């Protein structure tokens, strides 16, 4: 990459961009003055085509984010080759999974541990890497963790997801507490943002699962009451630009 291509652009790292909300977020951020680093385990050729037509610089990485160590190392190495300090840098922790769904008594290490690694441990190690490898930029830094209403109230059958997202909420609060007194050049603002009920593959998985409230999610779909990924992503992109970003550390896009 050349110095000219990186100077004074707003740099975004977005996880889980192959589909769903993450793909829509990447698309919403395809604006002049931005550049994106996108990561998931699979590719989205249509989105890659849209991105190249937009003229915005985007790099696509394939990385399994259920492995917190390699994910952190990967992010550090990607940030280390950014030659010119960006105008701002934002980490969007969007990648996530819903399964296992089922009673607490059926939780098993084989599915619970990969879930918590993906939804909680990797966002934590990636944040650590982000903080360590962006300090040299001396620019405004933001972290947006895509949370869930399920972080804040239990859903029967979603104990892994509720616990992981609640952990992510508390992690965001911990970042803000730690950086509250940081000088401007080291400052970080973090938000855990619930996106509402969004029409993605994750919702299809939920509708096909067996748990007490499943009919509510089937009804939302049948009654066309799901938010679209595109609308939600546009609202989140606008949220990121708010001057008071970080003032409400646990937020819900439906409140905005
Ligand atoms: N949809 C909703 O109603 C809703 C509501 C509340 C919160 N959320 C949250 O919003 C975020 C996005 O959800 P979504 O609905 O868009 O889900 P989705 O359609 O299932 O997409 C999930 C994304 O995460 C990536 N991902 C999952 N596991 C990964 C792994 N091990 N390594 C790398 N990437 C991985 C997937 O990419 P690959 O499979 O290609 O790796 C995919 O791009 C999640 O954090 C979710 O918890 C969603």
UniProtKB/TrEMBL annotation:
The keyword NADP applies. It comes from the Bacteria. The keyword Oxidoreductase applies. Coiled coil: none annotated. Keywords: Cytoplasm, NADP, Oxidoreductase. It is found in: Cytoplasm. This is SDR family oxidoreductase. It comes from Cupriavidus basilensis. The lineage of its organism: Bacteria, Pseudomonadati, Pseudomonadota, Betaproteobacteria, Burkholderiales.
